């Protein structure tokens, strides 16, 4: 039975549409919360101006627009947050190996 309960039950775990009507917008809410927290930490003055970057829009990481730019922004913010937490962390460069950068960030976070 293709339209049976068994098939429907399988799909309920797969897609966000099955979790409720607001699930599709959850990422936007998370991004707005992130941006509010970054503003409380003065990320514009401390992180962005130092690297001559533009402030994030309230949907910057919620929509995939330019993955390379978004990844570099993520790495820049991660390095800044790690440094702000009192750990020395070298700012990644735009053309660094992405796997090495993420490995370094994760390694530093694990050491917390």
From TrEMBL:
Region annotation (Disordered) ranges: 1-21
Cell compartment(s), UniProt: Cell projection, Cilium
Q: Which UniProt keywords apply?
A: Cell projection, Cilium
Basic and acidic residues: compositionally biased ranges: 1-17
Cellular component terms (Gene Ontology): cilium; Golgi apparatus; intraciliary transport particle B; microtubule organizing center
ATP-binding among keywords: no
Q: Main localisation, per the record?
A: other
One Pfam entry for this protein is IFT57
Matching entries from InterPro entries are given as: Intra-flagellar_transport_57 (IPR019530)
| UniProt KW S-adenosyl-L-methionine keyword | no
Biological process terms from the Gene Ontology for this record are: intraciliary transport; non-motile cilium assembly
Q: Which family does it belong to?
A: Belongs to the IFT57 family.
Name of the featured protein? Intraflagellar transport protein 57 homolog
Q: Which organism is it from?
A: Callaeas wilsoni (North Island kokako)
Lineage of producing organism: Eukaryota, Metazoa, Chordata, Craniata, Vertebrata
Identify the coding gene: Ift57
């Amino acid at each position: 039975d293709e339209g049976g309960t068994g098939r429907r039950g399988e799909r309920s775990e797969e897609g966000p549409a099955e979790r409720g009507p607001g699930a599709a917008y959850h990422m936007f809410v998370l991004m707005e919360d992130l941006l509010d927290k970054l503003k409380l930490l003065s990320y514009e003055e401390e992180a962005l101006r130092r690297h001559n970057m533009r402030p994030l829009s309230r949907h910057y990481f919620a929509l995939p627009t330019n993955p390379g730019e978004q990844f570099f922004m993520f790495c820049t913010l991660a390095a800044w947050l790690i440094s702000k937490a009192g750990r020395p962390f070298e700012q990644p460069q735009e053309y660094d190996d992405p796997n090495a950068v993420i490995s370094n960030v994760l390694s530093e976070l694990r050491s917390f």
